[in-house]
Amino acid sequence: xxxxxxxxxxxxxxxxxxxxxxxxxxxELLNDDGALPGTPLGRLLxxxxxxxxxxxxxxxxxxxxxxxxxxxxxxxxxxxxNTRRGEPSGMEALQIVFRCPLRLCTGRSxxxxxxxxxxxxxxxxxxxxxxxxx
Length: 134
Fold this sequence. Notes:
The structure is a single chain. By secondary structure, the protein is mostly helical. It has helices spanning 7-21, 23-30, 40-49, 54-70, 110-113, and strands spanning 96-99, 108-109, 130-133. Helix content is 40%, strand content 7%. The chain has a three-stranded antiparallel β-sheet with strand order 2-1-3. Helix 3 runs antiparallel to helix 4 (54-70). It is globular. 31% of the residues are buried.
């Protein structure tokens, strides 16, 4: 999926960026640890770990978004008016960002990460996000 580009790929990457950064909250909201292959979250995490295609990921991410909204999160994984954050990571001068090692999502800003080195929650090896100065 990392090789895909365009508006749909950015849409998916932004949704995955939010999901990865808030996976614990989403798991709690959905009462789903992501381990069961029959749930939308479990299916999405499994497809991501296996390197699924954009179409597979997009459909499952939509299902997780819908489940989150049904569970009471009015913004889901895409955010209010379908824009979780007004700007992607890396829009401030000399900003530190943390990039996804699998190139699945748009990453997170240092402001979102805090002091700990974050890991990619969908990476089977729990790879750390890559720190980069823009």
